[in-house]
Amino acid sequence: MLCKNAFVVDVEEWFHLCDNEIEQKLGTPEKLEVRVVENTKKLIKLLKDNRCRASFFFVGWVAERYPDLLKEVVSEGFEIGCHSYSHRIIYEMSPEEFEQDLKRATEIITDIAGKRPTGYRAPGFSIKKDMGWYFDILAKNGYRYDASIFPTWRPHGGVISSPEKPYIVNTKYGDIYEVPQSVIGFNRLKICFSGGGYFRLLPYWFIKFAINRLNKNNIPVLIYIHPREIDINQPRIKTNKIKEFRYYINIEKTEIKLKMLLNDFIFTNLSEIIKEYFNMNDF
After folding, report:
1. pTM, whole model, 2 decimals?
2. Closest of 273, 271, 268, 266 to residue 283, by C-alpha
3. Which residues in 181-209 are b (16+ Cβ under 10 Å) and which e?
4. Sorting pLDDT into bands at 50, 70 and 90, what band is 237?
């Protein structure tokens, strides 16, 4: 039997980049060009054409402004999750601020979708070691799983000591199932290949190799994408060369690589991955 993998869409606008400097340059978000709706619909069609299930994690700010987009995702049978309300870095927030942001986003998504999200993804994987309060707050507010841990170094967050496959986090409010971002190891070196700029930068043969290697060890891979990453006509933000490289490298090739990926592997939503990985009858 072929190993199933998870496909995740982080539903956020083109300017949701976890970068305070850029947000200050752009000005009021409400006045900026809308790109997320059509780009997300394009991803929906791409997934449907390839008969792929997926999880869509909505930023509450986006869901609040474009409720019909969230309703369309639900009507097409995709899983929904929460990607914060404000798309702020989690480790820069106090526990109280995080819980307030979480509750606001959860309420908005639930009211629009008619169902409560049970999965969460932190903006920018911005969870660090020794942030147990983060998981406590998720469990306290009814969340059952998380997909925010990045098991190697990155500019925002990163937990080098994290397991590289799904695991359970015990909290005082119950267990949280964690599906960390997929990485492939070469001795002490861990490389992310499975989404965002990593997916855009690396050649497809390497991505395919990495997925096959993990799948052979019965480890499901988590692939993620942002709607802006298939948008070659999006506004380009003028910033330093390193950031421009990270934000825009190979955007013109993303859709082609996605089509190859969806053709070569079996994808489903994160709840299904957790249920099968932990051998549960239901989740």
Report:
1. 0.96
2. 271
3. bbbbeeeeebebbbbbbbbbebeeeebbe
4. confident
